[in-house]
Specification:
With about 210 residues, the chain is of the alpha+beta class. It has a single domain, classed as Class II aldolase/adducin N-terminal domain (L-fuculose-1-phosphate Aldolase, 3-Layer(aba) Sandwich). It is built from 5 helices and 8 strands, in the order αβββαβαββαββα. It has an 8-stranded mixed β-sheet with strand order 3-2-1-4-8-7-6-5, with helices on both faces. Helix 3 packs across helix 5. The chain starts with a helix and ends with a helix. The structure holds the ligand CSCCC(=O)C(=O)COP(=O)(O)O and zinc ion. The ligand CSCCC(=O)C(=O)COP(=O)(O)O binds next to loops.
């Protein structure tokens, strides 16, 4: 296990938390952040702290089943969702979860199981979408305090989807986004947050 890789992942997680906090996406103790290490272990935020004020002690290691490597460490309550992404997508190297106003409001107001994003230039931030004329159906899943059951629902949704976008919403709760590395995950989160903020404005104006 490389301490250098863990230190680099911890630094990336701290910086990502500060950036998400600057945008107001991790209010109170909301949100969690992780990075997959080269040995397959996952570096993830501890449960409960403010993600805009993380220090190195705020990041710990878990295995792909979400079990802490060090007895007594308490990883994010949503570790199972991070691990579900890493297990399903071998190319995923970083996962971000936030609770922004547009995500929370839109997912509460949308009765359906997806939010369609179309006509946005920023869609080009996503893999396989070379033009604004493309669209993303961003899955929306019902919230569940039982994270193992919620992950089973996420897996079932992925099973029945053709193309899976690298993100989904949990109704009234938040957003999950992933990428090959932290810069890619952050770029996708920013693009989705921007488009969802536009959707919120459009629905207000309608
Ligand atoms: C006060 S936010 C409720 C828990 C949550 O949804 C979240 O994102 C933060 O949980 P964690 O255990 O990762 O701190
Ligand atoms: Zn959450």
């Amino acid at each position: 296990m490389s301490d250098d890789a863990f230190a680099a992942a911890t630094a990336a997680i701290i910086t990502a938390g500060q950036r998400m906090d600057r945008f107001g996406w991790v209010p109170a103790t909301a949100g969690n952040i992780s990075v997959r290490l080269p040995d397959g272990v996952v570096a993830i935020t501890r449960s409960g702290g403010h993600k805009g004020f993380l220090d190195a002690q705020g990041v710990i290691r878990v295995d792909l089943e979400g079990r802490p490597l060090r007895a007594g460490d308490r990883p994010s309550a949503e570790t199972g969702l991070h691990c579900g992404i890493y297990r399903r997508f071998p190319e995923a190297g970083a996962v971000l979860h936030g609770h922004s106003v547009p995500v929370t409001h839109l997912s509460r107001r949308s009765a359906g199981d997806a939010i369609l994003l179309q006509g946005y230039e920023l869609l080009k931030a996503f893999p396989g979408l070379p033009t604004h004329a493309a669209a993303i159906a961003l899955p929306v899943l019902d919230n569940d305090q039982d994270i193992a059951r919620l992950q089973r629902a996420v897996d079932a949704r992925w099973d029945m989807s053709g193309t899976v976008p690298p993100g989904y919403l949990i109704r009234g709760h938040g957003i999950y986004v992933w990428g090959a590395d932290m810069p890619t995950a952050l770029l996708r989160l920013e693009a989705l947050e921007f488009m969802l903020a536009c959707e919120l404005e459009a629905r207000r104006a309608a």
